[in-house]
Write a structure and sequence with these properties.
Blueprint lengths: L1 H24 L3 E2 L4 H28 L7 H26 L3 E2 L2 H48 L8 H12 L3 H10 L1
Antiparallel strand pairs: 1-2
Helix pairs in contact: 1-2, 1-4, 2-3, 3-4
Length: about 180
């Protein structure tokens, strides 16, 4: 659950920036405050729909891959990526308040900008997700320490908890420790 949340939040923030850049760079595309919701739609589509569409289109195009030259195969691969990006962009526009005017500047160029943005995100996602994961862990630790402070500190730990703590110290269970003691 944690990795999904961390990935969603980091991709959401990145998509938000990319959507605002699309709105700034392309006058026919009006993003504005709709970018907040559009980024949710775009992030969910990227995480859930993009892998399915990519697999589907790649499977369809691979049936005739042997009949194409290497250059034609690369063109088919780039076309597949563009079609997937276009579908995700159309869904984002349709399910959010993003307004698009004009076919070329509104439906052809934004998927290309999204693709460039996702290439950049792919380069930095490990760093971004590790920082977001650290923030998530800090938040979880502070919530956990607040819960621990509210529990009764006078209750002694259970025998299983004590055995687990001993095992964490040297990696041996009580039975393994006893067997080693019998040997020596």
């Amino acid at each position: 659950m944690k990795s999904w949340v961390v990935r969603f939040v980091s991709l959401y923030a990145f998509n938000l920036v990319v959507l605002w850049l699309i709105g700034l760079l392309l006058p026919p595309v009006s993003v504005g405050w709709a970018a907040l919701w559009a980024s949710v739609v775009l992030t969910l589509a990227t995480m859930l729909l993009k892998p399915l569409l990519t697999r589907m289109f790649t499977g369809m195009s691979s049936k005739s891959a042997g009949q194409r030259t290497k250059f034609a195969e690369k063109l088919v691969q780039y076309g597949t990526v563009f079609v997937v990006e276009l579908i995700i962009w159309v869904l984002t526009v349709w399910l959010s308040g993003v307004n698009v005017g004009g076919f070329f500047w509104g439906y052809v160029i934004p998927p290309i900008i999204l693709l460039i943005g996702w290439v950049i995100y792919d380069r930095i996602d490990d760093t971004v997700e590790s920082h977001a994961g650290a923030i998530y862990d800090k938040a979880g630790a502070s919530i956990g320490s607040q819960k621990a402070a509210t529990t009764d500190a006078a209750t002694p730990p259970s025998p299983a908890a004590q055995a687990g703590a001993r095992e964490l110290k040297d990696g041996l269970t009580d039975e393994q420790r006893r067997m080693l003691d019998e040997l020596g």
